[in-house]
Amino acid sequence: MNPTATTLVIGATGTTGGRTAAQLIAAGHRVRAAGRRATPLPGADPVRFDWYDPTTFGAALDGVDRAYLVPPIGDPDPAAVMLPFLREAVAAGVRRAVLLSSSAIPEGGPAVGAVHRALPGLFEQWAVLRPSWFMQNFTGAHAHADSIRTEGLIRTAAGTGRVGFVDADDIAAVAVRALTDDRAPDTDLVLTGPEALSHDDIAAIVSRVTGRPVVHHPLTHEDMYDRLAAVIPPEFAAMLAAMDRAIAEGAEDRTTDTVERLTGRPPTPFRVVAERELRAGATRRG
């Protein structure tokens, strides 16, 4: 990578964006940290950016030659706002784009799948990261983590289906390689952890690590939709509930070697993440 190049990181205070920005900065790369509040980030150039405000696009893209793209959260049709920005990015000189998608959404699929389909036709160099569900869903600010802390429960419609949950630090490490290696991947990359776990397995590990009982409470697909639709748009609630049903049917019961292949080290097990983040959180609260 050109040492004078600047990487735009959208969502630079989010779960993967923050980690990607931090790892880029630690490796000596120049970073423009984009977010709706232009939050200062040590070692980065903060800039205000809002997918729904095209007047913020120009400053974010000035002098940038590659970008890490985190879609707008909760939007069932992100292509409507992302594609105009991506065309402006190409015109501004951005040559490489790395898009955060999901293992559950193929090229041309719903939501960000439409952006995935468009990316190779827009950029000379590209990659689409398709991580499985984040391990941080159980340790950070996600609804699962909240219900673990407040009720000792994980509620899903995933049944006994297993998922190759992945550490957000590992996603960021792959993002850094995709952004900075001399050759871009020019493909989509399915990212998982080292093992597929059910939500019962997750609950058992969290219980052992924290010393507090946590159980998985299974819901029907309809009940899950109703819970989600009470707090998020119905279209997005339907998509998330359908993803849980797909897990129950085995769609995410897999692991890949992508993290190790791109970073040179194996992916992090969930128990390690739980010990790192849940014990640290318990120590801070105590």
Through-space gap between termini: 44 Å
The proportion of residues forming helix, as a percent range, comes to 40-55%
Tell me the structural class.
Answer: alpha/beta
Number of helices: 11
Widest sheet: strand order? 3-2-1-4-5-6-9
User: How many DSSP-defined strands?
Assistant: 11
The major sheet is characterized as: 7 strands, parallel
| Low-confidence regions | none
Report strand %. Answer: 15-25%
Measured on Cα atoms, how large is the radius of gyration? 19 Å
> What's the overall geometry?
globular
User: What is the string of helix and strand elements?
Assistant: EHEEHEHEHEHEEHEEHEHHHH
Mean pLDDT level: 95
Explain this structure.
- The chain is an alpha/beta fold and 286 residues long.
- The protein has helices at residues 15-26, 57-61, 79-92, 113-122, 143-151, 168-180, 199-210, 221-229, 234-248, 258-263, 270-285, and strands spanning 6-10, 30-35, 45-48, 66-69, 96-100, 125-131, 153-156, 162-163, 188-191, 197-198, 215-218.
- A seven-stranded parallel beta sheet has the order 3-2-1-4-5-6-9, with helices on both faces. A two-stranded parallel sheet has the order 7-11.
- Strand 5, helix 4 (113-122) and strand 6 form a beta-alpha-beta unit.
- Helix 1 (15-26) crosses helix 6 (168-180) and helix 8 runs antiparallel to helix 9 (234-248).
- It is globular.
- The termini are far apart.
- The mean pLDDT is 95.
Ordered list of secondary-structure elements with their pairings:
Blueprint: E1 6-10, H1 15-26, E2 30-35, E3 45-48, H2 57-61, E4 66-69, H3 79-92, E5 96-100, H4 113-122, E6 125-131, H5 143-151, E7 153-156, E8 162-163, H6 168-180, E9 188-191, E10 197-198, H7 199-210, E11 215-218, H8 221-229, H9 234-248, H10 258-263, H11 270-285
Parallel strand pairs: 1-2, 1-4, 2-3, 4-5, 5-6, 6-9, 7-11
Antiparallel strand pairs: 8-10
